[in-house]
Amino acid sequence: MNSSIVKIEKRLLLEKYLKESLIHHKPLLDCDSDAIYAMDLDGYFLPVNPACEQLFGYEAEEFSKLSYMKVIVLEHLERAFSFFYQSVDGKLQNFDCQIIHKSGEIIDVNITNYPILIDGKIVGVYGVAKNITEIKQKRKKYIEEMQHREEIYREIVEHSPDAVVIARNEEVLFANDTAVALIGALNKYELIGRNLFDFVDPCYYDVVEKRVKDVEKGSAVDFMEQRLIRKDGKKIEVEVKSIPAIYQNEPARHIIIRDITEKKRTQELLLQSEKLSVAGQLAAGIAHEIRNPITAIKGFIRLMEAANEFKQNYLEIINSEMNRIELILSELLLLSKPQKMKFKRGNILTILEHVKALIDTQAIMNNVEIEIQSFSEIPSFICDENQLKQLFINFLKNSIEAMPNGGKITIEVGLLESNQIQLRVIDQGCGIPEEQLHRIGQPFFTTKEKGTGLGLMISLQIIDNHNGTFQIFSNQNGTTIVTTFPI
Predict the structure, then answer these.
(1) Residue 117 half-sphere exposure, CB side, CA atoms within 13 Å?
(2) CA 195 – CA 294 distance, rounded (Å)
(3) Average pLDDT of each block of 10 consecutive residues along the chain (487 residues)?
(4) Please, what sign has the CA dihedral across residues 14, 16, 17, 18?
(5) For the stretch 161-197, what's the b/e string if a residue is b when 16 or more beta carbons lie within 10 angstroms of its beta carbon?
(6) Is the dihedral of CA 249, 250, 253, 255 positive or negative?
(7) What is the DSSP string of 392-413?
């Protein structure tokens, strides 16, 4: 049988099927806002509902002479042709394209085509066309807004005084100019694609890996000090913060890096300045402390000269006094001498005894007694002894100055169940007003007439350097300072 005759027969069969369907479903179809139509095997339309006439702009009688090839824009015609024949082959198709309204207006539509089967034969294609012009305009506007925001964000990031790096897993995806300068690269391409850990000091690998995992789980991590390795091999001190981000439509990490080299240098200068200030304030008491054993030494030497006789017990006393002078002078030199942080194992009780030897004379001159109590065996721990000595001197000086009429300072040292050493410095001074307690440790805040407000601020920095904690409690009966250090 001629293929044209077969197509005509199938067209007639399709028209009959549609008429019968409309009798039962016309009320529902008329209410539908989407254009519903049918096409014969040549792609000519048979309108089904009024929304179809409205979408295309043609009246019902015009549709019988209209094929989809005349309403699809040229750029989308090849795709539409392919989808139509896949539907004729029995496959459901869904796609976006543009159609030409009778008025010439271009309309964005989403089309779903599926075959019409009658007695096991495909006689045409059902189609549903949805006007998505408004949706596409909104989408376009949204994309434009997002692109605009991205441009603004990129401008902000590019001109940020902080180094900004965007990474996914361990790969660097983006770096701003500040990051390029910080690492000492010639351009961004020397960083992009590199492994992030190429620039991390190996001793920080473990903690950085943990922070990476936390951010990838969706948690931001706050600033942490660490060291980076520049392209020239030089190590630099930085603060690093990382937050979850989206880059190129995929999860990533937004990393902020701050060079704190100058900040650390300023802290060291402040620390040294305060140390010299403390050494100067202790000088009078130390001079008195040294004069006493010198007087004793001179006296015993004269006694031996007068008797023209060597006495062993006199020599032992002289040696003891000389050792005391040597201890006091060495502690004073350590306090005033600039030193880099040096962490090694130390015993907190030994450090406290050395500090007590230094400050005892000042305490006695102010009628203050210092007592060290230990409630358990205290293990050694990793610390910078010189910094801890400065910390304890600051605590004891403040306590002595808070007791102009004398009193007692008790230093209690104990071991907590959490594997931490706790130190409590308890004085019997006048206390600190409750409304001022929250300001303790702020730069230049002091309750003393001639204080600088830097001593306790530096003390808090020393505690932080040792990953310790600080608490202060005070009332009219005295002040208690509680510090803990992890073993």
Answers:
(1) 9
(2) 64
(3) 64 70 53 79 80 87 83 89 88 90 91 85 87 85 72 68 86 87 86 88 87 86 87 88 84 87 71 60 58 67 72 70 68 55 85 82 83 86 84 85 88 87 88 68 50 62 85 85 89
(4) positive
(5) ebbbbbbbeeebbbbbebbbebbebeeeeebeebebe
(6) negative
(7) HHHHHHHHHHT-TT-EEEEEEE
